[in-house]
Amino acid sequence: MQRLDAHADEVWHLAFSHDGKRLASGSKDGSVVVYDVLSADEVRVRHTLRVDELKDGDGQEADISEADGPGDDSDSSSSSRRKPVAFVLWSLDDSYVVATAGNAAYVWNAETGDLHATCAGGHVHHITAAAWWPDGSRLVTCGLDKAALAWTLDGERAGGWHSARMNDIAITHDGKYAVSICMDRNVTLRRLGDGREFKVKETDNLMSLSLSADSTWLLVNLSNSEIHLWDVNKLIEKMEEEERAAIPVWKRPDLRETRVIKDPVPLSPSMTFRLGRAPERGGRFVTRSCFGGGNQAFVMAGGEDASLYIFHRKSGAQLCEIPGHFNTINTVSWNPSNPFMAASGGDDCEVRIWVAAVASTKADLSHKDLPPFLFPEPPKILGEPPKVPGEGGSGMIGRMSRNWAAGAKEEPAESEIKEEPAGDA
């Protein structure tokens, strides 16, 4: 396990590049750090990009409150001087790294560290997340101003729509749907071709989402320390069923693309994962989860109890609980090209790199039924995970290793989205 201390404040988000050769992390300190992943045991800082030294699209510093970030602890004396980084992501070819701070998104050349473009002048409130169209031609940002805006790589507006206040967003790999989570506790599935929306009512406040690489599964983090797993195909089927049974209603006649089918539908997720004990007064922080391993068969998440959790996606079994950080773990990322490597970031200002023992040292594994991570402390053993039907082999290590070896990434299909007219921000 490698500990990286390049940040001076809480780490709010991190993401591996698609080729797994780099890692980017964004912090409350107003910086984005780009790392080179040189080997399973060596990760080094390549660039430190300062968002708080940049101007927004109008040449003025954005008015950013730290209280709007993952935690609710604000510092009014420094909020006017800082631009906390809420979200980072890589372009599909890994040439650019994007960070959102305040009501703007910044695009850097990942190789040189030079600022390429600024996406600003559209949002009137904080941007909470961003995602790429599958063809890489456009970036979409969402925020607390109820707007989802599309941008070209050069920072020009290229469409958008309005919905509810959005905390996170993703676009399916075929480019046909956008999935977002909103402050009204709804998971919203939006068909991008005609702008129709289907809403599913969740049980608590929604913090973040993660979409699997094949867009089949959706993870939604709730403030009560639960993670719900949704089958995206079933949501699409339910949407089409509701369309056949109901007449669309105009929510806002001035914006055609915001019509909805009907009120949010109560549905049950395919699986529920629970992270330790629930917070005493509800989740105070934005925590994230991700898929990982071969065929993305595992789910990793960080909790407010500073522990790292790994679950089996299909069976729901909790495989291990690792004492990960000294404070809340806000963000996790599993290397998409190296299933033996993952990263986490937390309120202790650290980024930690986790590597499976079989990938780095070939050491003898004393806990053969646990994922073979290099534990900083002896892991809490939770008992023998149940046998998953249809999976051969003996022991969790055998199953995980076979899945990792067999894991293959599918190339995303060409986007079929037609550009929508931009809504008024």
Could you please describe the fold and organization of this structure?
- With 425 residues, this protein is mainly β.
- 8% of the residues lie in helices and 38% in strands.
- It is built from 4 helices and 29 strands.
- The protein has helices at 76-79, 232-245, 357-360, 395-406, and strands at 2-4, 11-16, 22-27, 31-39, 42-50, 87-90, 96-101, 104-109, 115-119, 127-132, 138-143, 147-152, 157-162, 166-171, 177-182, 186-191, 197-201, 206-211, 217-222, 226-231, 265-266, 271-274, 289-292, 298-302, 307-312, 318-323, 329-334, 341-346, 351-355.
- The strands form 7 sheets. A 5-stranded mixed beta sheet has the order 14-15-16-17-21, covered by helices on one side.
- A hairpin with a 5-residue loop joins strand 8 (104-109) and strand 9 (115-119).
- The longest helix is centred in the middle third of the chain and has 14 residues, at 232-245.
- The relative contact order is 0.14.
> Roughly how many Å is the radius of gyration?
21 Å
Shape, per Cα inertia axes: globular
Number of discrete helical segments: 4
How do the strands line up in the largest sheet? 14-15-16-17-21
Low-confidence stretches: 57-68, 71-80, 254-260, 361-370, 372-425
- Strand runs, count: 29
Helix content: under 10%
Strand content: 35-45%
Q: Mean pLDDT score, rounded? A: 78
Structural class: mainly beta
Main β sheet profile: 5 strands, mixed
Oligomer type: single chain
Ends apart, CA distance between termini: 44 Å
